[in-house]
Amino acid sequence: MSTASPTGTPAPGQLTFVAPRRAKPARHLADLTMAERRAAVAELGEKPFRADQLSRHYFDKLNGEPATMTDLPAAAREKLGTALFPKLLTSVRELTTDNGTTRKTLWRLFDGALVESVLMRYTDRTTMCVSSQAGCGMNCPFCATGQAGLTRNMSTAEIVEQVVAGARALAAGEVPGGPGRVSNVVFMGMGEPLANYKAVIGAVRRLVEPSPSGLGISARGITVSTVGLVPAIGKLADEGLPVTLALSLHAPDDELRDTLVPINTRWKVSEVLAAAWDYAAKTKRRVSIEYALIKDINDQEWRADLLGKLVKNKLVHVNLIPLNPTPGSKWTASRPEDERAFVRRLEYHGVPVTVRDTRGREIDGACGQLAAAE
Ligand code: SAH
């Protein structure tokens, strides 16, 4: 026998190193609740208050480098650093546009998987658009991420680290406009957040919990965007987290939505909208209906009319997104006059509607373009 068995047991007398197949990213401080952090620190033979010190370094000072945490004894830094601050994200490439106020980062994860995040600074807010999965399994034909399929779920800390990295760049004054903070987080990067429910909820909790437990971002500034996984929307409504729900509808009729958002074959337009209205009733939060306008596919006035009838008099806002064509796609954005007519039709029904800007388009950082092509 010349190779180790698949179970990792070497043949007798053979010097073989079988690398452990780590299926999951290593545990990080940001994966843990405050109580879990104290327990983890105690398990390593350190006083539980060290967990508070570490948390302040990470969530207040945005410092993830244990070697620089000089208020901890050197031995503790080494031990706790190794155990709670594994390197999760490595920046592979950074692209900026809009005079540096839009910035996309391509990250490599521990296992080589690639994901992207985008920072967008406006005059009154700064939004981080984060990924929740490497790839995506929802297979929407107009979305760049959907074409590549799902690689794996991200961990809570891998999600949080994207926001911390943005917060760090802002705090350091690296983004034009002076030192600033992250005010909004949208789960509109790669992945279907509600298909990675547990890790995403963990990340949302870390984002909203006040210091030293988390980053202290207002739940109202956080948007979870979904294709419409109905049971998970129901669960989210019961979390007691008033985050904004964005529902990627893209078509008001099942026939078309079955093709644009294939999960519609499982949960129909009527079911997904019912879940959205339940969400709005429970959280008192306005639900955002996302609708990518695709020329001659879903932008007809009769569809605007049908959409208007379905959502009128609800706690809702319709967000029209001019399609960002993905490479090789036959589809493109609607004609300006069709877009205007679509808006007018919704306004006729009294539905609040806006057309989303397409920031980051030049750096493939706009909605649905995050594909991590390398
Ligand atoms: N999986 C989640 C979140 C990620 S995508 C979801 O589907 O909601 C974030 C938003 O961008 C979704 O509304 C998605 O439908 C939209 N989107 C995807 N590809 C797009 C494209 N090429 N042009 C415009 N919007 C797109």
From TrEMBL:
Note on cofactor: Binds 1 [4Fe-4S] cluster. The cluster is coordinated with 3 cysteines and an exchangeable S-adenosyl-L-methionine.
HAMAP family registered for this protein in UniProt: RNA_methyltr_RlmN
Protein's UniProt name: Probable dual-specificity RNA methyltransferase RlmN
Reaction it catalyzes: adenosine(2503) in 23S rRNA + 2 reduced [2Fe-2S]-[ferredoxin] + 2 S-adenosyl-L-methionine = 2-methyladenosine(2503) in 23S rRNA + 5'-deoxyadenosine + L-methionine + 2 oxidized [2Fe-2S]-[ferredoxin] + S-adenosyl-L-homocysteine; adenosine(37) in tRNA + 2 reduced [2Fe-2S]-[ferredoxin] + 2 S-adenosyl-L-methionine = 2-methyladenosine(37) in tRNA + 5'-deoxyadenosine + L-methionine + 2 oxidized [2Fe-2S]-[ferredoxin] + S-adenosyl-L-homocysteine
Pfam families per record: Radical_SAM (PF04055), RlmN_N (PF21016)
Extra remark: Reaction proceeds by a ping-pong mechanism involving intermediate methylation of a conserved cysteine residue.
Organism: Planobispora siamensis
MF annotations from Gene Ontology: 4 iron, 4 sulfur cluster binding; metal ion binding; rRNA (adenine(2503)-C2-)-methyltransferase activity; rRNA binding; tRNA (adenine(37)-C2)-methyltransferase activity; tRNA binding
Positions annotated to bind S-adenosyl-L-methionine: G191, E192, S225, S248, L249, H250, N324
NCBIfam families reported for this sequence: rRNA_mod_RlmN
Record-annotated active site: E116, C367
Annotated GO biological process: rRNA base methylation; tRNA methylation
Disulfide bond listed as a keyword: yes
Enzyme class: transferase
Keywords: 4Fe-4S, Cytoplasm, Disulfide bond, Iron, Iron-sulfur, Metal-binding, Methyltransferase, rRNA processing, S-adenosyl-L-methionine, Transferase, tRNA processing
